[in-house]
Model the fold of this input.
Amino acid sequence: MLNVMIPKERRPGETRVAATPETVKKMVKEGFAVSVEQGAGAGAFFLDAEYEAAGAQVTRDPDWSAADVLLQVRTPPVAEAPEAPERAGAGESAALSLRPGALLISLLAPHRNLPLVRRLADGNVTSLAMELVPRITRAQGMDALSSQASIGGYKAVLIAASRLPRYLPLLMTAAGTIKPARLVVMGAGVAGLQAVATARRLGAVVEVSDVRPAVQEQVESLGGRFIELPQMEKAEATEGAGGYARQVSEEFLTRQREIVSRHVAAADAVITTALVPGKPAPRLVTAEMVGSMRPGSVVVDLAVEEGGNCELSQADREVTHGDVLVLAPSNLPATLPRDASTLYARNVLALLSSLVKEGRLTLDTADEIVAATVLTHGGKILHAGTAELLQAVPA
Done:
């Protein structure tokens, strides 16, 4: 019987949990023994009693070394030269206290947490990074980046609406007509498209900029207006594997900014969502562009963990530039923790279930999902991009 453990998240501000009573019940039905740290679901309003009713053992002082599988939302980073980890339960130690051969499934951000990756490999821990799940049909139910990005795009519009000094929808009143607010969404991935859908439901006029012409149809199907970039046709291949945008040249970005800046200047709010996997976020909104916006306008930058799309963004801080407010929340899914946890836990369970054959963990590195997602295994770093980054970092 596989022992699956779910710790309470240690990162400041992280309210999500990697398993819910719903997914615990399914794990128990599949034959897993599930242990949940006391209070693990409290931030998402899942009570310990609910986990117990689902068949889990709720424990105050878990022994992480007894885990065959550890499920987390975000594993805390470690220092470059850390002290020996304390006993399980303090900060980073849940993942680092795993026995050799145990499995960790989490959002790991390997390109930003190289010391953690090295420690996992040195400890012979098998780790699967949820953000590395490939965007293929068979893996849709495991795609945590998409499920969490959708929440971020939704909440970004609500934040913008709450901070604007005006309505979003067109209103016709006895006192006259109020024109609808204008939003520009930069990046038409999952977060961007959810932002378009939410803003349109609230009645705003929405324009969308993206370097991938292929997303125009999706934008327009949601009621958005696609900002065409005619100078860039056939200039560069802008769509990478899995439909993600790929990194483009600075010249390309400069031309894009020249075209989009006119739309930004006329906008009441700008929501930026553009990310390139494993790379710094492209700089799409300059200080000059922010300065051209109307007084009272708002910028919400969802790419701040990767450096930000806006030049002025500071993580989790409000920046005022002239009369424009720049916001850069780093973890919007954690502000809707119940639904975010529900979706993430289902993603994790789908991945875990795919690895279990006849009650045993089977890591088939020939499988394209496993091959893309596995980070460390057998004492080695198997993800090529991360291994290359670590070669440049002293041990």
